[in-house]
Design a protein that fits this description.
homodimer; 322 residues; mainly alpha; 2 strands; 75% helix
Amino acid sequence: MEDFFVLVDKDLKKLELAIDKLITTKISFIKEIVSYIIKSGGKRVRPVLVTLSSKLCGYKGEKHIPFAAIIEFIHTATLLHDDVVDNAKTRRGFSTVNTVWGNEPSVLVGDFLYSKSFELMSQEGNPEILKTISRATTSLSEGEILEIIKTADIKTTEEEYFEVIGNKTAVLFSAACEIGAILGKVTTTQRNALKNFGYKLGIAFQLRDDILDYTSYDEVLGKRVGTDLKEKKVTLPLIHALQSASEKETSIVAKILKKQIISQKDFDRVSKFIETHDGIIYTSSATKKYLQDAKKHLNIFPSSRYKEGLLSLADYMLKREK
Amino acid sequence: MEDFFVLVDKDLKKLELAIDKLITTKISFIKEIVSYIIKSGGKRVRPVLVTLSSKLCGYKGEKHIPFAAIIEFIHTATLLHDDVVDNAKTRRGFSTVNTVWGNEPSVLVGDFLYSKSFELMSQEGNPEILKTISRATTSLSEGEILEIIKTADIKTTEEEYFEVIGNKTAVLFSAACEIGAILGKVTTTQRNALKNFGYKLGIAFQLRDDILDYTSYDEVLGKRVGTDLKEKKVTLPLIHALQSASEKETSIVAKILKKQIISQKDFDRVSKFIETHDGIIYTSSATKKYLQDAKKHLNIFPSSRYKEGLLSLADYMLKREK
């Protein structure tokens, strides 16, 4: 287990209990679906960020637990809706909710998790955190919508790509860190530092995701490799490769993205094309750059094991295999 | 135009401006979809309730406008998700968003509207209203989930039916009225009275909806008559008819509900069956009863044109044709 996981081990155990306790509903079907997806073993990266950030900021209470749970609920709601939008079959090595129960419960239980999160927040009575999370949730949906607008668009620029992943992924990482800062009642400078750390970490997390989708193996990843291409998502490895591609290569990729169904052979061809044009190397070095930048934001905090924890979490982003 | 609409005419004009102003996003595609569905002419019943209730409670400010807009956004988000869940083709005489742009934008713009609503509420800084709306939104999703659990179930009881419509419809009506009470800072007794008025009005609204789905015409309704049966929703007219049905009749209905696609002929057959067993008459008298009960809750308020407005809104529920 990674260092930072050991550091928050007790908190993560409390988190699991809180997740069970906070999902109150008379409808057992909802509980069944929520526990199916929440218990299917996410990495709990966002709750870890809430916890480490709050402790870095000297917070001694227990409120980081419900807020960590809420952040995980919102993340889970987006997964449920994503899987409907993408028509995904597997996630984390399990069949998706939409595959097992259909699209309807996937959409509606996602809605339940969103509403429940806001209901819980309204009971917590922390307006600053509420504002932070609700802004992040709006960005999240904007990012997802931008992503579908850019689907199959080989003219997608790096700037547009970073806008998509900034909204759909980085903003929630940023909010998770900011919650810690709000709980710890630190200065605005420290709060902004954590916010920026989270944002850049989130970008790096997504870059790594987009690399793994070309380079990993189904069994390791817990879902099909090549999913992004099959869903016609134009991610950085491909964007970079297209920048130095010949006209002929570009037209081949364009043709593949126009197909109804993208085959394994198509994927292999695009993978090879990305390799030739250093798409993975380029994305890896972008990941490194974002992580270095992210870590610098923590310089203003004094040394502590929680700071070490956040730094090692950043390093983990670069090497994680799933 | 109905009396109560005249009474809130100026407020509804402000509402339309607020709707445009509050949907801030850089993504023009979101604006396009939101204005397509919001401007397609809903009845604005929930905003009218917020407005009349707040004025009944002596509220003189302007905050009822953003909250009325928020309630309408949440309602619109549920419509977007409903249409995906039900695979609906038309609503309010227009093609549904999922038909024009596909399921993805329908799910994601619904999410955007939910998040935006909570973001706006977090900025308004009224924790009581936030709690009321977030609880209602959770109930709403629970109601929708209960409804899909009960799909095609001819054993659905009246009690279960009322639980579904209570959650999916009445709770938001109730919240709309409660917002008015909170803004007007009335006594707990008055607040509860408005809450109960809204709840019963919402039940009556849904009962009328479920009647019209059997008795109206496509052109009047703005969507296909018989949609509920085609979506295998077992509503009160059918539940009541089944209570006094012969074994043979029950088995015919059961067979129809098991079909992949329910035809016009099937619908005519079930309609006839409901007529024979007074399903519509029974549901109409239930509607009347709920409206009478609803109106009684307003007895504790002194006479005013806003009270008259709410009472005439209740009467409108009984006779509305769309």
